[in-house]
Amino acid sequence: MSQNIYDNPDFFAGYATLPRSAEGLDGAPEWAAMQELLPSLTGKSVIDLGCGYGWFCRWARAQGAARVTGFDLSEKMLAKAASMTSDSEITYLRADLETLSLPATKSDVIYSSLALHYVHDIPALFATLYQALVPGGNLVFSAEHPIYTAPVIQNWCTDSAGNKAWPVNQYQQEGIRLSNWFADGVEKQHRKLSTWINMLIAAGFEIRGINEWGPSAEQIAANPALDEEKERPMIFLLSARKPE
């Protein structure tokens, strides 16, 4: 079973303070770029993996989606999403993405924001998503960029005086990375960008677009904290399609 860090009270409380939690989709600086990768949702059956508060689920319905299903492992997230939603065509379900099961060829669009880097068995998940999509269906997701996940923070290089200098950047060594973010021992999976792409291709997907996202000058001016993101991508956005 995946690590359920979002039900950790400290983590959940910390996550609630983020702009993307408090302000919804508009609080995510990459949201405008994500929208460019999404197809029309009118009349579509949509899935949101790692739905959190359900912001995207509600937005998808506002865009004309016929039905939306949001999956999350966290009971706290699902309870929050349910409390913010009054729409019979939105369903929230608890599921572990490591063992997710979906009906075949029933979904038009599968979306995920910053959730898939927690998943260990990505090939199995991509195979599940591929069979769940109708021919011509779309998978659009974001994940932490491997340049961001690569460093192993626990192992530090030292300078000639023996002082800690910088974290070891082990880009080529894929696997679990631990971070202390709102709670200690948060597990994420580091995999190279080529691995992400090749796993999608192996599952049968066509790659439609990829964006190694960075903030615009206007976004940095409005939110100076984003300045560090201009030097290296923290996340990537990807659009893939099941051939017709």
Write up what this structure looks like.
The chain is an alpha/beta fold. It is built from 9 helices and 11 strands. The chain has helices at residues 9-15, 19-22, 31-37, 55-62, 75-83, 122-132, 146-149, 193-203, 217-222; strands at residues 45-49, 67-72, 90-94, 107-113, 133-144, 151-158, 164-169, 175-179, 186-190, 206-211, 235-241. The protein has a 7-stranded mixed β-sheet with strand order 3-2-1-4-5-11-10, with helices on both faces. Strands 6-7 form a two-stranded antiparallel ribbon. A two-stranded antiparallel sheet has the order 8-9. Helix 5 (75-83) links the parallel strand 2 (67-72) and strand 3. Helix 6 (122-132) packs across helix 8. The radius of gyration is 18 Å and the shape is globular. The model has no long low-confidence stretch (mean pLDDT 91).
How many β-strands, per DSSP? 11
Measure the end-to-end span.
Answer: 33 Å
Per DSSP, what share of the residues sits in E-state strands of 2 or more residues? 25-35%
Give the helix proportion (percent range): 25-40%
Give the C-alpha Rg: 18 Å
Separate helix tally: 9
Biggest β-sheet: strands ordered side by side in the sheet: 3-2-1-4-5-11-10
Q: Round the mean pLDDT to the nearest integer and report it.
A: 91
| Topology as a string of helices (H) and strands (E) | HHHEHEHEEHEHEEEEHEHE
State the secondary-structure class.
Answer: alpha/beta
Shape descriptor: globular
Domain Methyltransferase type: 48-141
Keywords: Methyltransferase, Transferase
GO molecular function, one term: S-adenosylmethionine-dependent methyltransferase activity
Protein name: Class I SAM-dependent methyltransferase
